[in-house]
Each structure stands twice: as structure tokens, then as C-alpha cells.
Write a structure and sequence with these properties.
Elements (H helix, E strand, L loop, with lengths): L1 H16 L1 E3 L8 E7 L4 E3 L7 E9 L2 E3 L2 E3 L4 E7 L4 E3 L5 E7 L9 E4 L2 E5 L7 E7 L7 E6 L5 E7 L5 E6 L4 E6 L12 E5 L3
């Protein structure tokens, strides 16, 4: 009897939240697409281990950790735990969650076009960089630097194309790239150029 009541409770909760979540149990490194419907909230399930993941928007406009993303955009290194939420405010969205792709940037010059977290020493080589906004128009872009304990060290707001700043990035720090928007509409792509300053 308790099992039946438990199963019914789960079914009712899923109906209230109005989402379908499918996990590929055969491959823990790749998760299937997740569909989120109108005004729904998806709590990251226990099937996904804690850690950093790339969240790609397959369709619609989705909010990932309070950051709005359009179709085709990726939130790089989104930290998933039991307190993580994925939701949309209108329409319908489809996302895909995969373990983060680590592409270590150690070139003298490289570009970043994804919102998200970049770990110094794992994603980006330690050093001083001149960072320039190459996006032609649209939203302001903000770069935050945190230490390993999530304490803020510095930040800079890129307000227009060609805005630039020098930042010293040290191992184990986290660089968070965010796009400033008010309502999740009229989102523009971001493109930042990183040039290592010669010592």
C-alpha cells in the first residue's frame, strides 16, 4: 500500500510541475533532451551527479541559473546539484545536458562565445589578458572573477563593441561571463577576444 501511495505521489508531483525528464541510463556521460513546458520548474534530479555541465538550448528561450539563453546557445560549466533549477517564463523550451567539454585555452589569442564559468588552470591558462568585446550590438556583457571560495575579486561591464579591459587571472580562480538582460527577450550573441599580455 505504501508503495502505491508513493508512486501516486510522484505521478501527481510530475503532473503539477508539468515537465518530462528522460535520463539515458546506459550512458551516464550524456543525458537525453529535457522538455520544459510553460511556467514550469525543473529541479535537477538525483540521477545527475553533482558537477559542472554544459547546458545547450535545443529549442525556445530557457533560463539556466537565472541566465536567459536562446536556441543554439550553451551555458558552459553550469554547476548542477540538488538546488539547481532550470526554468522558462513563457512558451516552451528544450534543453540538453552533457558533461562539460574541457577545451584548455593556452593560445596567445582566443575567443569565447558562451556564457558560463571558466576555471583558470582548467579552461584558461593563468596569466594577464586584454579582453575585448567583439559583439557588434545588443546586450551588455559582464565578466566576474571569483576566488576558489566564491568570493568576488573583480568585475567589468562591457557596454559596447570594442570595450576592453586588462584582467589578471590566476589558477583556481573562476571567470564568470554573463549577459545582462531584463526580460529574456532580444538576446544577442556574445563574443569576447582574449589576448595574453606579454610579460
Amino acid at each position: 500500500m505504501k508503495k502505491i501511495v508513493g508512486i501516486l505521489s510522484i505521478v501527481i508531483c510530475l503532473g503539477i510541475l508539468s515537465f518530462d525528464f528522460f535520463v539515458d541510463i546506459f550512458n551516464k556521460n550524456t543525458f537525453s533532451e529535457t522538455t520544459i513546458t510553460n511556467d514550469s520548474i525543473l529541479e535537477c534530479p538525483e540521477d545527475i551527479p553533482k558537477g559542472y555541465y554544459d547546458v545547450e538550448v535545443i529549442d525556445g528561450c530557457v533560463s539556466v541559473g537565472l541566465v536567459f539563453l536562446n536556441q543554439g546557445e550553451i551555458y558552459h560549466n553550469y554547476y548542477v546539484d540538488r538546488n539547481s533549477l532550470l526554468f522558462i517564463d513563457h512558451g516552451k523550451g528544450t534543453i540538453k545536458i552533457n558533461q562539460s567539454k574541457r577545451e584548455f585555452q593556452d593560445d596567445q589569442c582566443f575567443q569565447i562565445n558562451h556564457i558560463g564559468n571558466y576555471i583558470i588552470g582548467e579552461d584558461i591558462k593563468e596569466g594577464e589578458y586584454q579582453i575585448t568585446l567583439l559583439s557588434q550590438q545588443g546586450n551588455q556583457v559582464i565578466a566576474f572573477v571569483y576566488d576558489e571560495n566564491e568570493n568576488g575579486i573583480s568585475h567589468y561591464t562591457f557596454k559596447k563593441q570594442k570595450d576592453k579591459v586588462k584582467m589578471k587571472l590566476e589558477n583556481d580562480q573562476k571567470l564568470f561571463i554573463e549577459r545582462r538582460v531584463d526580460d529574456g527577450k532580444n538576446l544577442s550573441p556574445i563574443l569576447l577576444e582574449f589576448k595574453r599580455v606579454k610579460q
